[in-house]
Known about the structure:
This protein is an alpha/beta fold. Helices cover about 30% and strands about 25% of the residues. α4 (about 75-90) crosses α5 and α10 packs antiparallel against α11 (about 320-330).
Amino acid sequence: MLADPVEAALRRVFANFRPPPKLDLATWMETHMRLPAGASAMPGRVRLHPWQRGIADAMSDPNIERVTVQKSARVGYSTLLIGLIGSLVDNEPAPVLCVLPTESDARSFVVDQVEPVFEATPQLRGKLGAEADESGRNTLLHRRYPGGSLKVVAAKSPRNLRAHTARVLIVDEAAAMEAGSEGDPISLAIRRTMTFANRKIVIGSTPVFEEGDPVIRGYAESDQRVFEVVPPCCETPTEIMWKHIEWPEGEPDLAAFRCPHCDALTHEKHKVEMVARGAWRITRPEVKGHAGFRLNSLCSTLPNASWGKLAAEFIAAKKSPDTLQTFVNTILGEGWREASETLDEADLLARAEEFGLQAIPEPVRVITAGVDVQRDRIEITFLGFSDAESFVLGHSVVWGDPKESTTWAEVDDALKTTWRHPLGRTLGVDAAAVDAGDGETMDSVQAFCSPRFNRRVVAIKGASGNRPAIEASHSKGSKLFIVGVDGIKASLLTRLARGRSIRFSNTLSAEWFEQLTSERRVLRYSRGQPVRLYERIMGRRAEALDCVVYALAVRNLVKVDLERRGNELRGVAEAPRIPNVVRSQWMERGRR
């Protein structure tokens, strides 16, 4: 039986059919993508800069699983991200997950950037439909398109990250994301891609702080590509760094590039040519599958990124550490390290002196203890106080489960210990603050502290913000005290930087000093206002720092006359005080 002639013709057509080749990202963007007027400084058809093309090539390279971009502002990175999304929707459908720091960031990204580009690009117009949420309503941040989906979520909500899987993960402004109750949001997001063998992970950010910044750490783990321009003087490829930019005194508009190879000076008018001939160079070719890019604004050819304008911005910014940090972050694409805000544990260790709990310094009149509760141990730091100085006398660890009474019995023995004072008598702990901030051990801490309240052994909980050093909780019936940790840490940092207002025993270990310097003071903005916060340096424990903060806080509960305490330690009996008697002149008249 002969086949249907129509069916036979269709078979011949489809036998010769080949789907059009997938375009690489750079080609797709320059072929199809359009930037809308009003939402872009350069509306219309996209023309990629050389540095953008190299990043785009890595984003579409199937042999590269991860892309990390450590960047400044004014380099067109957002355009690349939107181009990647558009290319996936049109060219290579897949489930895509975008993670931004906050819900408002996510909405702004969709409304102000993604939707206008999709509307302005004929190839994308109408392709991004709304996805229904669990209640059947369409959502702004969850969209579907043929063969895939786009979900834009906030890093602040772990539920957002648990609820979705994706082949392509895009993380923007990673440095602004803070770890929550379930850990690092970036790590949580990466786990959502594990079921895809051909996954793509793109993480980019303007860095904030030099240590612990996720994008700086990611770049360090990558093949570390640098963008090198070709100056006309000697044509030796060079990465433009801030140290290469100079200008005559008082004339920043004349800023130029000093070649580090031939020492020639190249002016702004040659920048476009230098950059056009530029290329990315891989500095760690042994790393495979992870492309890392480091880029600053000095190679940008935008008018507001001219060397002269950047030099003027620098002159204005350097007047204040806060504005200088913004320049370093957003213009140079580098992490900020403020020397006065970070302490070197080796320097503090070198200050250690020959004293301790068994050899208390003579000026000490009061001793307090800060107690930090961990799951398998309880750590105690003992501080001594004179009228002008503080002395870290020692540190001990009680190993055991904090839910067991035997562990607390050892802690009680430590807090009841007395030590021989150089003046003759003994001195013990005047007050102790025990951390009850861990929800799992709070009941055990309060059960220990409550019957010892008359010894000033108090349960405390740390709180950030502008608070008193220590104050009783306002909760009815509670004997919990609230410690204003930020204020104490600020004072502690200043005192440590000055030198000798806090002194250290040589019985303290090197690890203890590393823990004491485990946090640094950072600047964040809340509702547009700068706020000083404390950030843990990655990989460091902080028990020693916490113990010292608690011991300093509880000193405020000890109201003793230091001169009288000194006499007590000497064994000098205090002469009885004779009350002043004021005689009435009227009574005297009556005796005459």
